[in-house]
Amino acid sequence: MTTVGLERLPGRPCPIAAALELVGERWAMLVVREIALGATHFGDIVRGTGAPRDRIAARLKALEAAGVITRSPYQSSPPRHEYRLTASGEDLIPVLDALLAWGKAHAVAADDPARLPRYRPLRDLKGSR
């Protein structure tokens, strides 16, 4: 698992800054969201995030290096892998749930036609998979 030395961080070095070094890039958290929702294959993760394939490939490598996800082969020809959250990745679910609640309250208008009433915390969905 990758860690970040606080002495390397600019400004006020703290664990929040260290965490953002590892998972603070937008696509990183959306990759974690997709895997938490059950998307384990590359194409499904790309579709769920809407990000370019190269960005997701880079995020998956970085998250694996950080110990947030694991990658294991499920097909040898052509080689394909599936992705799962590690314990460290599972520990991000409450962070995603907090962002979901904040986003619903402050970032998305209550009358937005694309706002879906079915958004539920990931911790609630975890047991239903």
From TrEMBL:
Q: Where are the transmembrane segments?
A: none
Question: What InterPro entries has UniProt attached to this entry?
Answer: HTH_HxlR, WH-like_DNA-bd_sf, WH_DNA-bd_sf
Q: Which SUPFAM superfamilies match?
A: Winged helix' DNA-binding domain
- Please verify whether the record's keywords include DNA-binding: yes
Q: Which domain of life is it from?
A: Bacteria
Residue stretches making up the HTH hxlR-type domain: 14-111
UniProtKB keywords: DNA-binding, Transcription, Transcription regulation
- PROSITE patterns in UniProt: HTH_HXLR (PS51118)
Q: State the PANTHER family in the record.
A: TRANSCRIPTIONAL REGULATOR, MARR FAMILY (PTHR33204), TRANSCRIPTIONAL REGULATORY PROTEIN (PTHR33204:SF18)
Q: What is the protein name for this chain?
A: Helix-turn-helix transcriptional regulator
Q: Which organism is it from?
A: Mycobacterium deserti
